[in-house]
Amino acid sequence: MEAFNTLPGIGKKTAVRLAYHIAVEDGFCGVKLAQAIEDAVETVRKCLNCHNMSEDELCGICADESRDKSKLCIVQSAKDILSIEESGEFAGIYYVVSRLEDMDELHLRHVIEGVFEVIFAFPPSIATDTMILYIEDKLEGSEVIFTKIAQGVPTGVELENIDIMSLSRALEARVRI
Ligand SMILES: [Zn+2]
After folding, report:
1. d(C-alpha 6, C-alpha 40), whole Å
2. SS3 category, 69
3. Residue 153: which pLDDT band, with cuts at 50, 70 and 90?
4. In the CATH scheme, what is the code of domain 66-176?
5. What is the pTM of this model?
6. How far is Cα 93 from Cα 83, in angstroms, rounded to an integer?
7. CA-CA distance, 175 to 171, in Å (whole number)?
8. 166: CA distance to ligand 1 center in Å?
């Protein structure tokens, strides 16, 4: 129970329910879960190209030849890639910038070679607006247009908590910045 309770989004009641399930009701499920967790911890790393979660050097999206390499979507977390992929609205490639302090400007410049449009898919806030300005500034001189996702994304809400419809609409109605 204590172990489950340390996970994000799992309160005490849920922790009790989950612990009871794997320890008492379905031990096999517990063993499978333990194995899956161990595998994930051992094998999941960052894609060398976009910093998405990956089991290989390049993630499935970067390795996919059919993706539109002219559109690059910058997100704050690799989790956001999952949400956008689920919307099915975007066929381009991604780049994760979690913190400006960690951003490797030269690497990003290399990644946007051949990119026509850079789309910022950040939840709207003053902090993310600052990030956008900073990144735009760093990429000055490159021949890309900058857009950001539009309405449908409420202030102060993480992308993973936005319903698919709103996220699809926000991507579709992105605005030039
Ligand atoms: Zn990648």
Report:
1. 18
2. coil
3. low
4. 3.40.1360.10
5. 0.78
6. 14
7. 9
8. 25
- Cα 92 to averaged position of ligand 1 atoms, centre (Å): 11
CA 90 to ligand 1 center in whole angstroms:
15
139: which 2 tokens? Answer: 């990429």
Q: Residue 44 C-alpha to ligand 1 middle, in angstroms?
A: 12
* Residue ranges of the chain assigned to CATH 3.40.1360.10: 66-176
Q: Strand pairing partners for 119?
A: 73, 147
Query: How does pLDDT run across 49-63, given as a tens digit for each residue?
Result: 999 999 999 999 999
Ligand 1 center from residue 152 Cα (angstroms): 27
CA of 62 to the centre of ligand 1 (A): 4
List CB contacts of 91: < 8 A, sequence separation 6 or more.
66, 67, 68, 71
Residue 25 has pLDDT above 80, yes or no: yes
Distance (Å, whole) CA 116 – CA 120: 13
Structure tokens at 37: 């967790």
Q: Which backbone phi and psi does 21 adopt, to 5 degrees?
A: -60, -50
The H or E element that residue 111 is part of is helix 105-111
**Distance from the alpha carbon of residue 117 to the mean position of ligand 1, in angstroms:** 17
The yes-or-no verdict on residue 44 having pLDDT over 70 is yes
